[in-house]
Amino acid sequence: MFALNAHLTRQTRLWCGNVFCHGLERPGATRKMSTQRFSCAELLGWIVSCCCWLLLASPTVAQQWEVHETLGHVELFSEFRLLPNVVAAQLASVEEELSRNLNLVQPDNAGIQVIVFKSAASYRAYLSSRIPEARHRRAIFYRSGDQYQIYAYRHEQLLTDLRHEYTHAILHRALPFVPLWIDEGLAEYLEVQPERRARSSRLMAMKWKCRAGWKPSLRNLESIPSAARMTGDHYRDSWAWTHYLLNESDQTRTLFREYLAAVSAGAAPGAFSEWVALRDSEVEKRVGSYFRRFRISLR
Predict the structure, then answer these.
(1) Structure pTM?
(2) Which of 74, 180, 207, 271 has the maximal Cβ count within 10 Å?
(3) 171: how many CB neighbours lie within 10 A of its CB?
(4) By percentage, how much of the chain surpasses pLDDT 70?
């Protein structure tokens, strides 16, 4: 179980579908708190705030779970009897691809809570008082300080949702910052199980769009100011650029890996379009031809 991060001035980040919210928590006491005086109302407010964060950070508080297991660095909670080994296999698949293709490895102290509800109603009831912005989303990745949590509920696309949100969790665990289009592009790409990607309807649509002379614009993606401004087209194009960089050639995959390595090292490599143009000026030009040559499997 993760320890509650009680620093009330720390920034909180919320990823819920296409909403990435930033908010500062209410300022609280510092190390000098013992020398400060508080009114009863202020003290009560502080206690209530701490209790709210405790409820959010610890899924076991006032909640009964049918499944509670630790799977490596994942702590799984579920309101129904899902199969932990099935979930573990899907999450491990995501992690293995990120490690193999991009050298993204979880820190030794990595820990992620995955919390699954039996129904949409149960999910929304649980989140309504904890993360009200997220209650209408199908699944969310939530980060507050050192807390990393994924919330989802039972339906036919549950494993897809878990793969998607787990990608966000790994990226934000491994990197000090994640460019928006890379964050969402990798999540969209990895949410689909590898054996199903060749039959993707999105891949077929991209093939025909590119055959008509269109190609996804990397610079447009880099100009999106926030996740809240992302549209369906932006998600599609983020997925397309990720698909291209990972699969076009060893060269594009290496460039992608080296850019993320620079981010991981704490460098400020700038926009990927500018960074990659200095190393291979043809990369942006080839994205359209990459999709045009695809043969789509209908099996």
Answers:
(1) 0.80
(2) 74
(3) 22
(4) 77
